[in-house]
Amino acid sequence: MSDWGWRIRRGSCLVGLVLAAVSVRAAAVPLDKAGEMRLGVRSYVNARVGTEATAEGTPRSDAAGYYTAYPGATFPYSAAGHLRQNRYFLEVELKHDLDRLVQDGFGPLQLLRELPFDIAGLNYDLTLRAEADGIYDWGPAEYSTAAAFRKPGLPPLLPKLASADFGAKRKQLRDHNVHRERLFQAYVEGRTGNLFVRLGRQNLSWGETDGFRLLDVINPLDSSFGGFTVSLDERRVPLDMIRAQYHVGSLGRISEMFVEAYAAIDNRVGFTSSSVSGTPWALPGGGTLDALMLTDVIQPARSIDDARGGGRIVFNVLETTVSLAHYYTYADLPSVQVFTNPKGLLTPFDDGLPCANDPSDHSCGMLVHTVLAPQRMQVTGAAASFAIPQWYAVVRSEFAYLKDEPGYTQGQLDPLIFTDRMRTAAPAATGGTSTNDSFNAVVGLDVQQYLRWLNPTHTVFFSTQFFYKHIAGTGDDELFALDRNGFAFPNPNRQVLPVTMDALVAAKAFGLPVEPIFVSQPADSYLQTFFAGTSYRSGTVHPGCGLFYDWGGGLVFQTGIGFSHDPFRFSVDYTFLNAGTLKGGSGVSLLRDRDNVQFRLEYAI
Asked: What whole-number distance in Å separates Cα of residue 102 and Cα of residue 109?
């Protein structure tokens, strides 16, 4: 494998570096003599073992001992040495070139010859993907049984409070995460003159970054199978779309110009998979207040009104490749709206659910309703990259302005704030929703150099990126404020993520620890990434290491080695995640208790 292969492999992800190094798809095998039909297969099985116990949280109890919350905890708790992932992955891709059949007038394809224009490069692509995780069948008890789904004791002062349906939550977990098989991508493509068109279910990436996305937010991400330890290419969810590209050519000093546009009508969004409780990669706080809350997840409609789409212009000028883009898409995080009963904060809704104190009575409900809805946003940005040949380097830069991405404040999500007469001018049954605009930028450098003392035969590849994000119009970041009577309470204007890091015992709620304190989201965040890797023994041994460092206080470090002997690859990697406290920003700290070692065997043709 050539040294420049490291530049290609870098695009998959920095975390999961060994997988990026050895999981390059082999050339597909021909199924016919002419090589018009080609089949590619990629399959792997892994075992990921936790090397530290997950966070148990700090217990918050009421005086009578009826209810205990564990804010900041990872649900479910898993001890060190327990299996965290046993993933099975299969992807089969069939590509069929139809040019000869069109020329021969085969079947209905002969109709294409009657068109007033010629069609060339006509082909279709079908990709089947099957995934499964064995931990829910033969893993440790916290994942393979419902033992962790325990119903907390509730005070008799809330007789109309429903019992949490943990059986339904367990069923939802198994339905979404035990196994799934789907026609992953299916599209047909062709060109006429300077126009290229692809129609069907597909992925589309316009970004230049690794690990984290700026302009590359067209397709949603599915993080339910390993979070950001899985490469971006594997987490992207295809959308039903039409994509068109027109080659303009040269205009003065501008060369290789083309215009590209897409339109997608699809209901898939990223937060639907991440909202499932009980996975090894769920965010902290899951399960803490489930007994008091009913969550409803809404997806966009498959309609023109809810469509995604946009365009970009790409060209070369002064040895630099420049891209200008603008499009509409849906954020991976949802718009969150919290509701309480207008009759009073301590009056449960009538959801027609069994009562906690009398299961035969089906006139009870939850204290809080939470609605997760898709948030449509605009993305406007530019990207530029150029090579420095004498350094064997590539410089990458990207800027993105995100308009109307979902935003959250403590006062919006905390029902004890927006329904408390002592804290607000008037009580309300909901905190509403909010959006923010943000400025995002990244500069990256990729370098290949010979370090003969380290590797006498192959170059060493280095890649680093620096990300910056500024959220416009955020409030102050003080944790507490004073109400009209001079008493301290959570600052309602603080920008947060919808992740619980603590729970206060609320006296007005009969001493229950139900007032959530959410993770702060800073107005400015900075993130540095770094990767270094090389290959030995004619490209069959691939050691490497990489890290993410969030300047707000979060670190991910991974090191590993991969071995390849076509068509097999085997890799071992260790991932270390650390943060003093839970923080917003890049979100690196939110998985601070998931250190793990992974063993992975892959087959690819």
From this structure: 5
Residues of the chain with pLDDT under 70: 1-27, 61-69, 150-157, 226-228, 274-275, 286-291, 421-427, 506-513
Task: Give CA–CA dist 486/506, Å, rounded.
Answer: 16
Q: Which regions of 212-330 does DSSP assign to beta strands (E)?
A: 239-251, 254-264, 293-297, 308-317, 320-330
Nearest to 572 by CA among 591, 558, 592, 588: 558
Q: Computed from CA positions of residues 8, 11, 14, 16, in that sequence, does the dihedral angle turn out positive or negative?
A: negative
Task: Report the DSSP pairing between strands 293-297 and 368-373.
Answer: parallel
Q: What is the 3-state secondary structure (H, E, C) of 468-530?
A: EEEECCCCCCCCEEECCCCCEEECCCCEEEEEEEEEEEEHHHCCEEEEEEEEECCCEEEEEEE
Q: What is the pLDDT of residue 460?
A: 96
Q: Please state the separation of Cα 395 from the chain's center in Å.
A: 26
- Per-residue pLDDT, 287: 53
Question: How many angstroms separate the CA atoms of 384 and 193, rounded?
Answer: 27
- In terms of Cα–Cα distance, which of 587, 482, 462, 467 is closest to 534? 462
Nearest-angstrom CA–CA distance, 171 and 182:
20
| Amino acid in the structure at residue 403 | K
- Strand 393-407 and strand 434-449: the pairing is antiparallel
Which domain covers residue 527, as residue numbers?
A: 5-604
107 burial via Cβ count (<10 Å: 0-12, 13-18, 19+)? exposed
Return d(Cα 60, Cα 441) in angstroms, integer. 40
Domain count, the chain: 1
Q: Tokens 């007789």, residue?
A: 159
Provide the phi-psi class of 546: left if phi over 0, else alpha when psi is between -120 and 50, else beta. Answer: beta
Supply the pTM of this predicted model: 0.90
Residue 252 DSSP class: T
Predicted local distance difference test score (pLDDT) of residue 75: 85
Tell me which residue has tokens 């509730």.
154
How far from each other are the two terminal CA atoms of the chain, in whole angstroms? 16
Structure letter (DSSP) for residue 412: H
Cross-strand partners of 597: 49, 574
> What pLDDT sits at residue 507?
60
Tell me the pLDDT tens digit for each residue of 501-539: 887 776 655 566 678 889 999 999 999 999 999 999 999
